[in-house]
Write a structure and sequence with these properties.
With about 90 residues, this protein is of the alpha+beta class. It has two domains: about 5-35, no CATH class; about 45-90, no CATH class. It is about 45% helix and about 20% strand. The protein contains three helices and three strands; from the N terminus they run E-E-E-H-H-H. Strands 2-1-3 form a three-stranded antiparallel β-sheet. Helix 1 (about 40-65) crosses helix 2.
Length: about 90
Amino acid sequence: MSDYERIYLQTVEVSSTEYEGRTWCQDRIDDTDTEYVRADLLADLRSQRDALKATVRDLQAIVYAGKAPEQAQSATEDRISRGAGCASGIQKGE
């Protein structure tokens, strides 16, 4: 059997102030369950995120050739915050 990617901690509530115990489950049972993700999967996702951020910085430098990297980053962040060229702009009906 392989390890689960996510597990959920459930608290067994007896009353509003008393708890009988805690159990673990591979499925979310209640909205109050606490989700845990395997650390190795989280580390992989963080590595992928960091690699994508580096790629974006490189592309910004190409697109904004002649500008300092900080200026390229600032210009891109301004466009994103305005919703230009991203899903949020579409959702706003722009």
